[in-house]
Specification:
By secondary structure, this protein is mainly α. It is about 75% helix and about 0% strand. The longest helix has 15 residues.
Length: about 220
């Protein structure tokens, strides 16, 4: 007698309902009531396609920076939806490093950058870095502000510091590439963009940049 098919986890039903009603609060409440982060991590790594999608989405909602490595690996999942959910989720994890107060400080810095107040963003990021040196996203946000102020060498250094603290921080690696372009080092920029694609293969704009730089350098 053949074995009965494995029963789909309850998580799949929560996910399907979420796709229908798009009520994130209900999804988060249901998942947190029935699953630990450890179980979600196991399902994200080895479940079915739907289960991996549900688990990665859940970790994006419920996880913290300790889940960074897990979602970094999920960026290479063979399912495109899993990869997309992982990219969205891992960015959220980066904002949840540090204490609650430090997270609030980071959100203020992001708002300053988004509203083109780069001087203020850089000053506030410096204060946060002095308070907690290991906060990778604080370094990245200061790098963004410095880049916009055309302080490319300083921005490049901050991108490096962000990647040193968070090896999965593909936007900081891309930032390094843009800094090198402004510093007229196309070879180093190309290396950075290639490295960024090893971290997140779905960045088509970066892939296009790699192709352009390769053709430019070959035509010298």
């Amino acid at each position: 007698m053949s074995a009965a098919p494995a029963k789909a986890p309850l998580l799949d039903a929560f996910y399907q309902r979420y796709l229908t009603d798009e009520t994130s609060a209900r999804f988060v409440a249901e998942v947190s009531r029935h699953y630990t982060l450890g179980t979600l991590a196991r399902l994200a790594a080895g479940g079915s396609r739907i289960t991996r999608r549900a688990a990665v989405l859940s970790i994006g909602f419920l996880g913290d920076f300790r889940c960074n490595e897990l979602l970094g690996r999920a960026l290479h999942d063979h399912d495109r939806v899993v990869r997309l959910l992982a990219e969205n989720g891992i960015r959220e994890l980066w904002y949840r490093d540090g204490s609650e107060q430090q997270q609030h400080q980071l959100q203020s810095i992001i708002r300053f950058n988004n509203s083109f107040r780069y001087d203020q963003a850089a000053r506030e990021a410096t204060r946060l870095i002095q308070e907690v040196d290991g906060f990778a996203e604080a370094w990245n946000q200061r790098a963004i502000a410095l880049y916009q102020m055309e302080r490319y060498s300083e921005s490049l250094n901050d991108c490096r510091e962000a990647v040193e603290r968070n090896p999965h921080h593909f936007p900081a690696v891309v930032g390094m590439g843009h800094c090198y372009l402004e510093l007229y080092d196309a070879v180093a920029a190309l290396d950075c963009f290639r490295l960024a694609l090893t971290l997140n293969p779905d960045m088509e704009n970066v892939r296009a940049q790699v192709g352009y730089l390769q053709r430019t350098l070959e035509g010298r």
